[in-house]
Amino acid sequence: MRMILLGPPGAGKGTQAKSISNKFSIPHISTGDIFRKNISEKTPLGIEAKKHIDKGHLVPDKLTIDIIKDRLNNEDCKNGFLLDGYPRTVNQGEALKALLEEDGNSLDIALLIKVPRKFILNRMTGRRVCLSCGASYHITFNPSKVEGKCDVCGCDLVQRADDTEDTVNERIDVYEAQTQPLIKYYDDKNLLSAVDGTLEINEVFESICGILESIKK
Ligand code: ADP
Ligand code: AMP
Question: N or C: which terminal CB in the chain sees fewer CB atoms within 10 Å?
């Protein structure tokens, strides 16, 4: 299965992606995680990406598209993948389509996690992440078993530098201006399905599984 997750920042894409990846045995690819790894390793890509991420802006398409091209070439993506946080512009969507077509492939589904703006600030300022494995928690809605430690790998949990109130508001504006057009883009191609992301985490996952089982390849 070749799928992408759409939705505003804080919709629950990363949270759901972990469970989808386990259940459907497809790699979870998060461009945000790739950037954060590069930032922590201070690579040239990380240094460039950080300038944009810290302001709540998108990393330029050229850089982002190259990363995805490189990652999707890996052997583990041959039978499917789950993209979380890519594409974020129509231009990135077109690049993905062209890339898949080179191998005679196409996307199976664009799954939108719908969450109104009023829920988002609370979710993101309470988010705690593991920079080692990418797991995402919430201090109230989804706490780790041991405070400050990742359930999966035991590493320290941190608050993301871009999860401050000002940056979150900027990121939602950027989402509405640059990423929301992808909803129509995929709807026009009959690839869009949507779930209510305001439900509890396990209820959102059940809705997603219902949709994915019906299109499973
Ligand atoms: P995204 O990857 O879309 O930015 P995350 O998966 O990191 O979002 O989720 C953002 C925050 O909201 C995290 O702290 C996460 O634990 C929490 N969260 C995710 N899904 C839900 C949900 N259905 N209800 C309440 N909180 C949620
Ligand atoms: P995320 O972890 O998905 O919330 O992404 C964190 C930040 O990384 C975003 O706010 C962007 O600055 C950057 N980013 C992640 N994915 C992309 C993308 N596909 N295009 C541009 N910037 C991205």
Answer: C
Q: In what order do the strands lie in the sheet with 2-6?
A: 28-30, 81-84, 2-6, 109-114, 192-196
Q: What residues form DSSP beta bridges with 127?
A: 138
The pTM of the full predicted model, rounded to 2 decimals, is 0.96
Q: How many CB atoms lie within 10 A of CB 104?
A: 6
Contacts of 155 (CB under 8 A, 6+ apart): 130, 131, 132, 133, 149
Note if 13 is an active site residue.
yes
Q: Cα 167 to the chain's mean position, in Å?
A: 17
Q: How far are the Cα atoms of 37, 98, 99, 205 from residue 10, in angstroms, in the given order?
A: 19, 29, 28, 15
Pocket-forming residues, ligand 2, beta carbon under 6 Å? 9, 30-32, 35, 52-53, 57-59, 64, 85-88, 92, 162, 171
Span 67-87, mean pLDDT? 96
- Can you list the domains of the chain with their CATH numbers? 2-27+74-116+168-216 (3.40.50.300)
Q: Tell me how far apart the alpha carbons of residues 71 and 85 are, in angstroms, rounded to a whole number.
A: 14
Q: How far is the CA of 32 from the centre of ligand 2 (A)?
A: 5
pLDDT in tens, 92-146: 999 999 999 999 999 999 999 999 999 999 999 999 999 889 899 999 999 999 9
